[in-house]
Structures are given as structure tokens and as C-alpha cells.
Amino acid sequence: MLTKILITMLVIIGAVVYLRRGRSNKVTHSNTTVHIEKPPLLSRVIIYTMIALSMLATAGYWGWGWYDDNTVVQVTISSPIEAMTASYKVRKKDIQEQRITTIDGIQIRLSNQERLTVTSLKNE
Length: 124
Prior knowledge:
Blueprint: H1 2-21, E1 27-29, E2 34-36, H2 41-69, E3 72-79, E4 84-95, E5 99-102, E6 107-109, E7 115-120
Helix pairs in contact: 1-2
């Protein structure tokens, strides 16, 4: 979340600087020659580099989020009422507040008394 905020702030600051500076195509009129000043190549390179870095960072953030959400973990459900323990393999994105969905597609509803222990799988 912090990464998204920082990238957004960089884009906003870059846009404000660019807009304040403006696209000034200054034309000087003289009797003999007309000179048109072009924006410096360095500012264009900086702007395009910032855009490319922003897009690359966004793609990296989305990719990491997708990878992390699809990580398989082991969930152990402990019930103090029935004195039972059961373990399931679950993707991180399928762990919700009152329900989990296993890799096999089994949906398990949880009560308020049951406790979850989430551990990473060592072999996968």
C-alpha cells in the first residue's frame, strides 16, 4: 500500500512540475532570423524514464501481490470444544474471516471458538 502511495505522489509531483514549467516554445522575432527553442532533450528523457519506472514498479507490485496471494500455506484448525485438530492446504487468498477454501475446493466454515494456525509449507 505504501508503494502505491509513493508512486502516485511521484507521478503527481512530476506532473505539477511539468505543468508549471510548461511547454514553452519561445519564438524570438528578429529582422534576420527566427529562433525556435526546443525543450531540452534531458527533460524529455527524465519524463519518459519516470513513466517507464512507474509502470515497471506497478507491474512488479501487481506481480508480487499475485504471487503472494497464490502461495500455498498449511492451515491448522484447533477446536477447544471438541478437542480436535485438522490441517488443510490453502492458498493465502482463500483465507477469509469466517471461511477457508482448500486447494481441493472444499469450503470450511469457522466458528468463533476455533483457532487457526497458518504455517508455510517447506517443500513447495
